[in-house]
Write a structure and sequence with these properties.
heterodimer, A: alpha+beta, two-stranded antiparallel sheet, 18% strand, globular, B: 2-enoyl-CoA Hydratase, Chain A, domain 1, Rossmann fold, eight-stranded mixed beta sheet, six-stranded mixed beta sheet, 31 helices, 52% helix, EC 4.2.1.17 (chain B), NAD (chain B), NAD+ binding (chain B)
Chain lengths: 402, 735
């Protein structure tokens, strides 16, 4: 089986996912074009060598609908011969796109592919694509559908994370992200979004609140109390986890991932594919996996899927230098560290989505790039990237520098 | 002119037909196969007769109609079973589906026949009858207090299957429609109009004219949902609005039903699917679900217990036939504590004169004040007027003088649960009452035969056991002492009927019927606790099994100290083997060392803070000798244990002759302690599982958890013979 190598990884900065966000004026397809264009220019790449563009997008409707990957590749001038496909595994879509692009290389069927993602949450809106899972009684009821915030609160309740615990983690995420930006640790990956005249629209993540402390977070009210009580979801959480007496609501906007706009792209290929394009590999995909897990907890999939990916790669957690787990909610990360018994200093060392935001379909490929940069900067070798996924799934990938 | 048996049919000078539904020899109009046949004929007549412009449907009785004949639906299930045996499952199902949607198709035919139909409704109009009204293009309700509309099918495990789910969901916001269908409440006229269920409200004598006027003024024969451009009240299911509604509706369904009620689930499905389809297809989907639910054991069980049996017991199924109707006028209540005061209230509320006696006037007056408070609450809620309160209070005489009981027809004592105190009261009362007065004891723990030994007249001595809170609890256990006679029984049953509660007649035994089952439930909770099951899981297992509260919570309500007292008394009288030592140790620790008596002192298994909800006491885990991991516990088994232990106790009461009629155990278990209503009650739970399966389950639980799960002889016999409790009762009656 051929190895899949990572030749490059780029991302846009993340714009606040609201009408006052800097990227609100930028169509989703243009966000994707920004990253595809950067991959092409930074590597002096003949785009005709790219055999597939796989993009994750969670709400593929309206301007993001109808296979945005093909639209973006065309608009980026990759040529009519370059196909594109859009995939959706909710929050892990961006990493799944990378895994799928890598899998095409590893199968020997392709030599150069791009995996990435795009989400304009400000323009399309979370949940705009609908879906039977929360709505159709035949699926929702039997499978304990919960809004993610309630699931995160259930995790905190069940595994004993207090409001202080989750807030403290959020403060740390903000600190680490601020320092990483100050140290220029993202400069290798972040490409500014520009207008038609070459003027920069956004060059830096704009969701961060570097001054965040326990006191400022302490003033925020738990966000899911009413939804849990009035909407009946606390009862569903308890029905699924009857050892829980009541749900302790601890999450709010300050300790949950931010709603933002952004795109990402990772250039992958075989050894020969890279050589043919004159590229130098930065890392190798050691393994990847996706898994289904507890539906009501919903966001604990990273634990199971990390163990599976490690097994598939013939590794143990001790072989991993850095862990990058998407900060959907504080409790997701805290439970992950607790369950795998990890050293917190190895996890999300440059902050994550609580500080910088989570552009759903794009995040997976973004954080893969972030941790690759960090491996290179710190001279480390291996990293595991994972995301929790709606409807109780998890996706992971393991990379190793070459 | 066409003639009908169930309808009077007249066409006026304007060409407007009036169909007056008035089934002869019945006090209430009911939808039967004959009524359906005639209605179909009636619709065809209106449709084809060019001289007829439209039709008003009204009732010739004081009520519109109570809906469909439930026995007709039950008959359909029997036919299905027969066909399935003879011709196979598929043919039987096909027959059943077609038959069970006939009413729906008939109403749809009425709605689309091309002529406008209007319903003029006075009195109750429920279930299938209200679905008829909903199929009409116009509905006018009388403004009379007696007028009520609604779809109460859910209360007997069914749902509105003749277009009700579809039409209601097209008349109002989806959330409101689901709530109405889930609750099954009876709705007053003005409220119904505000909800969009009716177009107009008018005085009773004007409803027919209002309906005719609507037709005369060109009322449309096309329902709004059949018109082009019809918009659903809550927009499409898959829309931003739908995302606000459906996830929460699904969650609330689970919260309210614990997923135990297939009919409620079917409402969600029928509305969810139906709102995405044009009306004819939507009705088809509703019919598919109706055919499924109609065959469910939950519907069969709930119809039998909560409709048929309850009605029979309320009508005096157990009353000795040859005792003439008792003429109760005045009722004495001795003991004006919490129970006595409440008994005085419900008695006075039924229109009886009440003499409320306690040892001094202050105590008696304090008991009477309870009625004042309850009536004031009613007034605050708009359910009573000040005059009602004054009249009710005037009927209660508070007194410290037993002599005031001299002309009572029935005296109920509700004094302290102590044999000595009770004995004294019996003698004091009997010294003043007439010879034909019936004496009833509202004891919950002391055997009636024992108390009757203090009586000069044990034939007229009986137990009338109320449940707390008396105002709310619908069940009354009437307890027969060894010597209790028919007149005492008839009097007790007539009294219970008068206060609008449901009686079950129970032969004397320690704890009678209900409390025996309740104690078994609480014991199982305690033993799970001792085993190391997380306390929250015990409580949730109870609730998920269908009980109103978990066993620990129930123990707090009853009093942890009372539980301990009962245990100690049982041990003293029946010996060490009669109790479970682990339970005694647990309760002794809680009460004697931790001072936790239950809700009464805000400290039991739960803490009861001044503000905020009760929470399990964090100190509980320290009282558990070991702790089991939730992940390795079988929730199904925990739920089963909690129901099986109660059902077993109910079976024992049958074996011991305490319960002689399965209807009483079933109705009593649901009304008395909320036994999972979807099962049809504690004995139906066994019957529908089959005695053989139940015995196998008991043996499995016995092997794992001890001899309290050993099935009694009666169940072994039933398992061997394939009998059911109801089958046995029928045989016994026939013999």
């Amino acid at each position: 089986m051929p190895d899949a190598y990572i030749y490059d990884a780029v991302r846009t900065p993340r714009g606040r996912g609201k009408p006052d966000g800097s990227l609100h004026e930028v169509p989703a397809v243009d966000l994707a074009v920004t990253t595809l264009d950067a991959v092409r220019k930074r590597n002096d790449l003949d785009p005709m060598l790219v055999e597939d563009v796989v993009l994750g997008c969670v709400d593929p409707v309206g301007e993001a609908g109808g296979d945005i990957a093909r639209a973006a590749a065309l608009k980026a001038g990759f040529g009519k011969e370059v196909p594109g496909v859009q995939i959706n595994r909710f929050c892990a879509s961006g990493l799944d796109a990378v895994n799928l692009a890598a899998a095409q290389v590893m199968s020997g069927m392709k030599d150069l592919t791009i995996g990435g993602g795009v989400e304009s949450m400000s323009r399309i809106g979370m949940g705009a694509s609908g879906g039977a899972w929360p709505v159709d009684p035949g699926i929702a009821i039997a499978n304990y559908f919960l809004p993610q915030g309630i699931s995160a609160d259930l995790i905190a309740t069940k595994y004993g994370f207090s409001r202080d615990d989750v807030d403290a983690y959020a403060v740390e995420s903000q600190k680490r992200a601020a320092k990483a930006w100050d140290d220029g640790r993202f400069k290798n990956s972040v490409v500014p979004v520009k207008d038609i005249n070459g003027l920069t629209i956004l060059a830096k993540d704009e969701h961060m609140r570097p001054g965040t402390d326990m006191q400022s977070l302490g003033q925020l009210k738990a966000a899911f109390v009413q939804m849990g009580e009035m909407g009946g979801f606390d009862a569903v959480a308890i029905a699924a986890h009857p050892d829980v007496e009541y749900v302790n609501h601890v999450h709010h906007a300050g300790n949950s991932s931010g709603i933002v706009d952004g795109a990402s792209a990772v250039l992958l290929g075989s050894k020969e594919g890279g050589e043919k394009a004159g590229l130098k590999p930065r890392a190798r995909i050691k393994g990847f996996a996706s898994i289904g897990s507890d539906l009501a907890l919903m966001l604990t999939g990273p634990i199971d899927v990390s163990e599976l990916a490690l097994r598939k790669a013939g590794m143990t957690k001790d072989d991993i230098d850095l862990f990058e787990i998407n900060e959907a909610f504080s409790a997701v990360v805290l439970r992950y560290i607790q369950a795998l018994d990890l050293d917190p200093a190895k996890v999300n060392v440059n902050g994550g989505a609580i500080a910088m935001g989570h552009p759903l379909g794009a995040t997976g490929a973004m954080i893969l790039g972030t941790v690759l940069d960090e491996l290179e900067r710190s001279g480390k070798q291996t990293a595991l990237i994972t995301l929790c996924v709606a409807a109780g799934m998890g996706t992971a990938a393991i990379i190793e520098r070459v | 002119m066409t003639t009908f048996t169930n309808f009077r049919f007249d066409v006026d000078g304007d060409g407007i037909a009036l169909a007056t539904w008035d089934t002869p020899d019945r006090s209430m109009n009911v939808i039967t196969p004959e009524v359906m046949e005639e209605l179909a004929h009636l619709v065809d007549t209106v449709a084809v007769d060019e001289a007829i412009k439209g039709c008003v449907i009204t009732s010739g009785k004081d009520a519109f109609s109570g809906g469909a004949d439930l026995t007709m639906l039950q008959g359909l299930s029997a036919q299905y079973a027969k066909l399935a045996k003879e011709k196979g499952e598929e043919e039987a199902m096909s027959f059943f589906y077609e038959e069970s949607r006939k009413l729906s198709l008939l109403y749809r035919r009425l709605e689309t026949c091309g002529k406008p139909f209007a319903a003029a409704v006075h009195g109750v109009c429920l279930g299938g009858a209200f679905e008829l009204a909903l199929a009409c293009h116009f509905r006018v309700l009388s403004d009379a207090d007696a007028t009520r509309v609604g779809l109460p099918e859910i209360k007997v495990g069914l749902f509105p299957g003749a277009g009700g789910t579809q039409r209601v969901a097209r008349l109002m916001q989806t959330g409101d429609a689901l709530q109405m269908l889930f609750k099954g409440e009876q709705i007053r006229s003005l409220m119904a109009r505000n909800m969009g269920l009716a177009h107009a409200v008018a005085p009773r004598d004007q409803i027919v004219q209002a309906a005719k006027d609507w037709i005369k003024q060109g009322g449309s024969a096309v329902a709004s949902w059949d018109q082009k451009g019809f918009k659903l009240p809550s927009n499409k299911v898959y829309s931003a609005a739908g995302m606000q509604i459906w996830p929460a509706a699904n969650a609330i369904y689970r919260r309210e039903t614990q997923d135990n009620y297939p009919a409620a689930y079917a409402i969600l499905e029928a509305v969810y699917q139906g709102l995405q389809l044009p009306m004819d297809l939507a009705l088809k989907v509703e019919s598919r679900w109706f055919a499924k639910i109609l065959r469910s054991k939950e519907a069969a069980a709930m119809i039998r217990t909560l409709f048929i049996s309850m009605q029979e017991l309320n009508k005096g199924a157990r009353r000795p036939k040859d005792v003439p109707q008792t003429k109760l006028k005045k009722v004495g209540v001795v003991g004006a504590g919490f129970m006595g005061a409440s008994v005085a209230y419900v008695t006075a509320n039924a229109g009886f004169e009440v003499v409320l006696v306690d040892r001094d006037v202050e105590a008696a007056e304090k008991g009477k004040a309870h009625s004042h408070k309850l009536m004031s609450d009613q007034i605050m809620k708009g359910r009573a007027k000040t005059a009602d309160r004054d009249e009710l209070l005037a009927r209660i005489t508070a007194s410290a003088d037993y002599a005031d009981l001299y002309d009572c027809d029935l005296v109920i004592e509700a004094v302290f649960e102590d044999p000595k105190v009770k004995a004294e009261v019996v003698q004091k009362v009997e010294a003043v009452i007439r010879l034909d007065c019936i004496f009833a004891s509202n004891t919950s723990t002391l055997p009636i035969s024992g108390l009757a030994k203090n009586s000069k007249n044990p034939v007229q001595f009986i137990g009338i056991h109320f449940f707390s809170p008396v105002e709310k609890m619908m069940l009354v256990e009437v307890i027969m002492g060894k010597e209790t006679g028919d007149k005492a029984l008839a009097t007790a049953l007539d009294y219970v009927r008068a206060i609008k509660k449901t009686p079950i007649v129970v032969n004397d035994s320690r704890g009678f019927f209900a409390n025996r089952c309740v104690l078994a439930y609480i014991l199982e909770g305690h033993l799970m606790f001792v085993e190391g099951v997380p306390p929250a899981m015990i409580e949730n297992a109870g609730k998920q099994a269908g009980m109103p509260v978990g066993p620990l919570s129930l123990n707090d309500e009853v009093g942890v100290d009372l539980g301990l007292k009962i245990l100690k008394a049982t041990k003293a009288q029946l010996g060490d083997a009669a109790i479970v030592p682990e339970q005694e140790q647990l309760l002794a620790r809680l009460v004697e060392q931790e001072g936790r008596q239950g809700r009464k002192n805000r400290k039991g298994f739960y803490d009861y803070p001044e503000a905020g909800p009760k929470r399990l006491w964090p100190g509980l885990t320290a009282l558990q000798p070991k702790h089991l991991e939730a992940e390795f516990l079988d929730m199904q088994e925990l739920k089963r244990r909690l129901l099986v232990t109660q059902a077993l106790e109910a079976a024992r009461t049958v074996e011991e002759g305490v319960i002689t009629d399965p209807r009483e155990a079933d109705v009593g278990s649901i009304l008395g302690f909320g036994f999972a209503p979807f099962t049809g009650g504690a004995l139906s739970y066994i019957d529908f599982m089959g005695a053989k399966n139940f015995v196998a389950l008991c043996k499995e639980l016995q092997a794992k958890h001890g001899d309290r799960f050993a099935p009694p002889r009666i169940l072994h016999e039933m398992a061997a013979s394939g009998e059911t409790f109801y089958g046995r009762a029928k045989d016994k009656k026939a013999a």
